[in-house]
Design a protein that fits this description.
With about 210 residues, this protein is mainly alpha-helical. The chain is built from ten helices and no strands.
Length: about 210
């Protein structure tokens, strides 16, 4: 696992999209707000049986916009709660923006038997629609399940996509070397994101994901 002292955005978000996220805040305030909003969505959403609390959390996202809220998490290290939620958010946005490519790569990646050997704890890797629903629930603050399981399922999805991207790279390598390299880099980024999500799941179970 790479050193998390230098926060980075997951590889599937391109620089243009990253630049569209909310502007600069005071660094200390940005860190505080990132952790407060992430904790409010996950901890209070899971712990509270009061429907008014859930309603307020959903309203926060709807009023301020998930893009604005998630943008505050963008520079958080992977081994933090806002960093883990940021990776889920980016994955969700990627699935929405490039649904056709995602579906095709998922199908080809899932067909590879080797993929199943690395999906520890995940019997069936979730598909694109499953991931979107799962992440929607987490990011709206209404997910009542084990966050570690949600993170692991998202990681499994990334690994399937990484396999599909690597297979696509092999197909185009003879005709377009540059495109093959781009796809290979994308596959590597997906594997890295999967590892980060799996690490976050382990930290959550150890009550050490802040």
């Amino acid at each position: 696992m790479a050193d998390d002292r230098r926060p980075r955005r997951p590889a599937m978000l391109d620089p243009r999209q990253a630049d569209e996220l909310p502007g600069e805040l005071d660094p200390a305030l940005r860190v505080e707000v990132a952790h407060v909003t992430a904790g409010a969505l996950v901890h209070q959403g899971r712990a509270s049986e009061d429907p008014e609390v859930v309603e307020r959390l959903v309203a926060l996202v709807e009023t301020e916009g998930l893009d604005t809220v998630a943008g505050l998490w963008a520079d958080s290290p992977a081994r933090t709660l806002p960093g883990a939620l940021w990776r889920l958010y980016v994955l969700r946005e990627w699935v929405r923006r490039d649904a056709g490519t995602i579906a095709e790569r998922y199908r080809s990646g899932f067909a590879r038997a080797e993929v199943h050997d690395v999906l520890a704890g995940v019997v069936t890797p979730p598909g694109p629609d499953d991931v979107s629903r799962l992440v929607d629930a987490v990011l709206s603050g209404v997910y009542a399940g084990d966050l570690a399981v949600a993170l692991e399922r998202a990681a499994a999805f990334c690994r399937v996509l990484a396999t599909g991207a690597a297979m696509d790279a092999d197909v185009v390598e003879d005709s377009d070397v540059d495109e093959a390299r781009r796809m290979t880099r994308g596959a590597s980024g997906l594997v890295r994101t999967a590892e980060e999500l799996e690490d976050a799941a382990r930290l959550w179970r150890a009550d050490d994901l802040d």
